[in-house]
Each structure stands twice: as structure tokens, then as C-alpha cells.
Design goal:
single chain, 119 residues, mainly alpha, 67% helix
């Protein structure tokens, strides 16, 4: 029998960067502790519905990043100036992408669980 591992659980390893932030007293790294949420996916067996939900959530997150990057560039240019606009806007779009992916995946799993309860 094949041992299947859910690779989405490996995202929880990024939470170790948050612990590194605690050790170095860099508060900017504490946001990585949010990746500890993905630790629960080590116990999920990846079937075709799970993979479809991950694909839908990733597509939504990618499109949200592509749509929001340009407005973030304009806003950050006016707020921070041209020199700091690019790194700040890319960081904001990355944060929005991670949040959109997680929110979409939770919503799709909730909707699937709700449909399974009605059967």
C-alpha cells in the first residue's frame, strides 16, 4: 500500500520562521506563525475532491494577486514614494494572496462538509 503524504501540511514548517523571530526579537517575523494552521493538513488524506478544492483556492488566490498588485503599486507610490513602492506592494500582494488562499480553502471545505451533512 502506498503511503500518501499531504504536501499542503509542509506549509506549516514556515511557522518556524515565527519562532526565529521570537529568538531574534524581530517582530516582523511573527506573522509567519499563522502558517501553523496548515499543520492540520498532515492528517488529511488527499483525495480528488481535496485536490480540486486546493486548485480552486489557488486559482482564486493567484487571480486576486494579479488584480491587486497594480492598485497596491499606485497606492504605495503615493504613500511611501517610488523607492519603497515596489517591495511594499509586492509584500502586500503576497500577504493578500496567502490570506485569500487560506480563506477560500476554508470556505470550500466548509461548503463540502455542509453538503456531506445534508446527505
Amino acid at each position: 500500500m502506498k503511503c500518501r503524504i499531504n504536501y499542503l501540511g509542509l506549509l506549516s514548517l514556515l511557522a518556524l520562521i515565527g519562532i526565529l523571530g521570537w529568538q531574534t526579537e524581530n517582530r516582523g517575523l511573527y506573522g509567519f506563525l499563522g502558517f501553523a494552521y496548515y499543520f492540520r493538513y498532515f492528517g488529511v488524506i488527499p483525495d480528488e475532491f481535496f485536490r480540486l478544492n486546493v486548485q480552486k483556492a489557488a486559482t482564486f488566490a493567484f487571480m486576486s494577486e494579479m488584480v491587486l498588485l497594480v492598485p497596491f503599486m499606485f497606492v504605495c507610490t503615493f504613500i511611501y514614494g517610488a523607492a519603497k513602492a515596489v517591495p511594499i506592494s509586492f509584500a502586500l500582494s503576497f500577504a493578500v494572496t496567502i490570506l485569500a488562499f487560506t480563506t477560500a480553502l476554508v470556505f470550500l471545505e466548509w461548503r463540502e462538509r455542509k453538503g456531506a451533512e445534508n446527505d
